[in-house]
Specification:
The chain is α/β, with parallel strands linked by helices.
Length: 268
């Protein structure tokens, strides 16, 4: 074997070894990411009066203290989209709890009852009680700053966020998306600061406009924005109504607003 053959063999060995080491390193990095996600994101359950509720808890790495956010789903329920939103808040320094309002029940029947209660008795119903229980559970989590609690909700969830905040002083900021207003509308004078996002042509558009006027009247800090061209569920990137510009801008506004009122600097 010549010196040239030895050098070629050594070069080939070095190349193969480098490829192997790179593969091991990438695999270890992926495993680390998976372990980290398992540590900070998980399904959980808690008590609400006589029944058990399920939820999805996502938290940043570290001891905190961190602000807490309750994430309230739309009619689709606690799905992967809502879990993803919870993780996005965790990435921004919040401990986020997404609650399943239809826990342990037939989803269709439960959603009918939930929507009925939202229309007939918006300020005092079972779902409001469940959300208060969720906030209590979140407050009890290690690392949560109980003085910095908020909520975000979508469609039905946004409507509940507004109604709930009219009756719970623990909430310091809320972010309703394409939500309906509670009745009587005068109840919003008790609201905490609100950052609301609404489509330009939707059955909730006028709700956003009316809410803006009422919050201005009662001098409640707020940022209400209507997005022309956006449709219902524009923030949900798993539906055909997803509107990238409106979703991105509303996310930036929510983070900035929550940063002001809950004390976390936005990273967008």
């Amino acid at each position: 074997m010549t010196i040239r053959d030895v050098n070629q063999a050594y070069g080939l060995y070095t190349l193969q070894l480098g490829t192997i080491l790179k593969t091991i390193w990438n695999y270890a990095f992926v495993c680390k990411e998976r372990i980290t996600m398992e540590q900070v994101s998980q399904m959980t359950s808690f008590q609400s009066e006589s029944r058990q509720l399920e939820g999805y808890l996502a938290r940043p790495v570290g001891e905190g203290p961190f602000p807490g956010i309750v994430v309230i789903h739309e009619a689709y329920g606690l799905n992967e989209n809502i879990k993803d939103i919870s993780r996005r808040f965790a990435d921004q320094g919040y401990i986020a709890l997404a609650v399943d309002l239809s826990s342990g029940r037939n989803r269709a029947v439960c959603m009918f009852r939930v929507m009925s209660s939202l229309l007939l008795n918006p300020l005092n119903n079972r779902s409001i009680h469940d959300l208060k229980a969720a906030l209590t559970f979140l407050s009890d989590q290690t690392g949560v700053d109980n003085s910095k609690l908020g909520a975000v909700g979508y469609c039905m969830g946004g409507s509940f966020a507004i109604a709930w905040a009219c009756t719970d002083e623990r909430l310091k900021a809320i972010a309703p998306y394409y939500a309906m207003n509670p009745r009587p509308l005068e109840a919003v004078h008790r609201l905490c600061p609100v950052v609301g996002s609404y489509p330009g042509t939707d059955f909730t558009t006028s709700n956003g406009q009316k809410l803006d006027i009422e919050l201005e009247r009662y001098q409640v800090p707020h940022d209400i924005k209507i997005y022309p061209g956006a449709k219902h569920s524009f923030f949900n990137d798993t539906t055909r109504n997803y509107h990238e510009v409106a979703a991105h801008n509303s996310w930036e506004r929510v983070l900035a607003f929550f940063g002001e009122h809950l004390g976390v600097k936005a990273e967008v």
